Amino acid sequence: MADDTTPPRNWFDQGGEAYARFRPEYPAEVTQFLASVSPGRALAVDVGCGNGQLTGHLAQHFDKVLGLDPSADQITHATPHPRVEYGCAAAERLPVVDHSADLITAAQAAHWFDLPRFYEEVRRIAVPHAVVALVSYGVLRLDEGLDTRFRHFYWQEIGPYWPPERKLVDNGYADLPFPFDELAAPVLEICKAWTLEELLGYISTWSAVRNVREAGRESILQHFAADLAQLWGEPALRREVRWPINMRVGRL
Predict the structure, then answer these.
(1) Largest CA distance in the chain
(2) What values do phi and psi take at 7, rounded to 5?
(3) Cα–Cα distance list, 122 to 13, 56, 132, 182 (Å)
(4) Is pTM beyond 0.85 here?
(5) Which region among 22-26, 72-76, 153-157 has the lowest average model confidence (pLDDT)?
(6) What does the pLDDT average to over 168-180?
(7) Cα angle value 116/245/115 (rounded, 5°)
(8) Of the candidates 164, 241, 161, the residue with the CA atom closest to the CA atom of residue 200
(9) Which fold has domain 18-251?
(10) What are the residue boundaries of the structural domains of the chain, listed by start?
(11) pLDDT of 189
(12) Angle between helices 218-232 and 207-214 (to 10 degrees)
């Protein structure tokens, strides 16, 4: 007989390694495109690299990639690569030699930057005609039914707990100042086949979820997890999860 006193599973209590475990990586087409428009392949600098979702893919195309993030914990969980050097640094003060970078990227990070100071650093480290790319992925999409419940959770239930910067991601960085000669970017998306645990693990990494928990509103998360589990069926079943990719790409 089941023990009715057993507390429900806390899907959102994932620990410090959750970001590295659950954040989706970008498809190869993103870095293939960025490499194709870069003036050279000597050095790419990935700013706000986190644990390297984009950084490692850049190493497939460039002789050297420098991944920089202010969080030592993120760098600790980055996957090593022989052509990647990771380091702790802020976007506004990059430890990069003047006029050395062919490509400067910021993936799911530019909305946290002091952009005028970051752009000063971009101009300082860029080679002539270098490319700068602000990459983000938008709100995920699920199968019909699941998606309806998810969107209510995202926009209505935890919407008030998102930091203001999140709006910049939701609109694909369209409102960010971008003082460069802009290039057209291809239409791309991230597509994953995830279990229920993987999806909820990813959601657990959101800043809004942390804010909900700190506000003592854990019940919002648990009700959502219970509803989604009921709609999902067998938790090990893999369902399609898609994110639209948005890129602001410019040439100096």
Answers:
(1) 71
(2) -70, 150
(3) 37, 21, 8, 15
(4) yes
(5) 22-26
(6) 94
(7) 5
(8) 241
(9) Rossmann fold (3.40.50)
(10) 18-251
(11) 96
(12) 130
